[in-house]
Amino acid sequence: MKHSFLFAMLISLFIVGCSNDDGDDGRIRLKVSATNSNGTSAKTASFTGKNNENVIFTDFRISIRDVVFKNDDDPNSNLDTDEIQFRGPYQIDLLDGGDALTQTIGDVVVPDGIYKELRFKFHKDEDLPTTDKLFDKSIYIEGTIDGQPFVFWHDTSENLDVGRSTGVEVVGGMVNFTVEFDMSQFLGSLKQIDLTQAIDGNENGIIEIFPNDEDGNQEIAKDLKDNIKETADLIDK
Is there a contact between 157 and 62 (Cβ–Cβ < 8 Å)? Predict the structure, then answer.
């Protein structure tokens, strides 16, 4: 009986010790968010400018996987490592009607150090139900152009590196990393896109902007995909 009690006490102390150790570990909590910095509203996914002032986004989603963090204090840490902190895939909804959203991916224990970069891969998920908007797609947007519905999607599988030059120090405790997409720059970060030039070529009532769409908007699809990647930024909040 005494041995059983002693064993139970030792197990309890071991669990408490492990819990304390976990609390002292450096951790990164990863979030993904959308924002709109055009000055019209903090949450409205609308656009300024003569050509795109009647463009509205109502749905913005991405699918990602294989998130890696780079520790500048560790010479063996790089963005090509096999040490993937978040494997995924993750389907992330960043816009509800006109309201920008933030989604938390999770948190992970990392070595102490200065973190300046992270990498993830846009990933089309073929394991989703075929009725899911992100089935076989990595970027998806819905909205209206001058009141007419449009749908944009892309199935890119490219890596995206984001960072901040000053870096973020992780020394015990929790640090938030947020990958933020500025929707106000989706039509002008790399190339100026006049979305009113997108056409409903097959006249089915929806302007379709895909890599292989039948409406004739494939070049716009490529430019919009590139613009979206360019707007991603890394912040710590």
Answer: no
Amino acid at 11: I
Q: How confident is the model at residue 15 (pLDDT cuts 50, 70, 90)?
A: very low
Check whether the bond before 149 is cis (ω within 30° of 0).
Answer: no
Give the C-alpha separation, 138 to 151, whole Å.
14
**CB contact set of 225 (below 8 Å; sequence gap of 6+):** 139, 154, 156
Task: Give 57's contacts (C-beta < 8 A, 6+ positions apart).
Answer: 45, 46, 95, 141, 142, 143, 183, 186
CB atoms inside a 10 Å sphere around CB 191 = 14
d(CA 11, CA 17): 10
**pLDDT tens for each residue of 73-95:** 998 899 988 789 999 999 999 99
pLDDT, residue 228, reads 97
Coil, strand, or helix at residue 73? coil
Are the C-beta atoms of residues 106 and 33 closer than 8 Å to each other? no
Domain boundaries, the chain: 25-235
